[in-house]
Amino acid sequence: MYIKFFLSMLFLSCTNKKADNISAFNPNNKHNNQLQIKTTKSKEDKGFLVLKNTYNQNNILTIYNLDKSKWKSFKFNDQFNDDDIAPNAIKPENTLLVFKCLGRENGFYKIVVNDEKNIFKYIKESDLNFKYQTIKEHILTVFSIDFNEEKNPLKSEPDDKAKQFSKNKNSFYYPIKINGNWLMVEDDNKEKFWIKWCNENGALILDLYYDA
Known about the structure:
Layout: E1 36-37, E2 47-51, E3 60-64, E4 70-75, E5 89-91, E6 96-105, E7 108-114, E8 119-124, E9 130-133, H1 135-139, E10 144-147, E11 154-155, E12 164-165, E13 174-179, E14 182-186, E15 192-196, E16 206-209
Antiparallel strand pairs: 1-16, 2-6, 2-9, 3-4, 5-6, 6-7, 7-8, 10-16, 11-12, 13-14, 14-15
């Protein structure tokens, strides 16, 4: 059974800003059963700290307080359940754990462990269970994206004046590559198009989905 998360993220600029917003449920939308991440504005966000898909579930993960004392240590497996840890994206059965990263401080990544309560903690940069990703890098790792067709229509080329195409609401759109503030996407028919992944203010304007 797929789990959908409407996650409040902070908007990031094209050079590394991101964010979040919750949309209404549409029973006819193909994305309804996907784990979703949506986005709002922050000048602090620097990227994401992502648990590697090679993570061994016997390994213990440790999160630290501001004074670098241990906050929590745990194994991230199918039985994991901790209400204090409610990050950007989480799905233990898929080894999916994604924290917003607010920067580096003295050998630690500063992360948001609870988006709703805006709780900040730390993970060691030397922790090999995690990898850091910029916003651009992270977009290209998700399963699919969604977008506002009226404000951000499909284009034949990464150009505002390029030919425009209608959105197929029964198709997924998969991220392929980024060119500036444009993202190439591919639909279920292997047709390729371009859309913008951020607006003129550098705010992310896509919804990101982690599974089908």
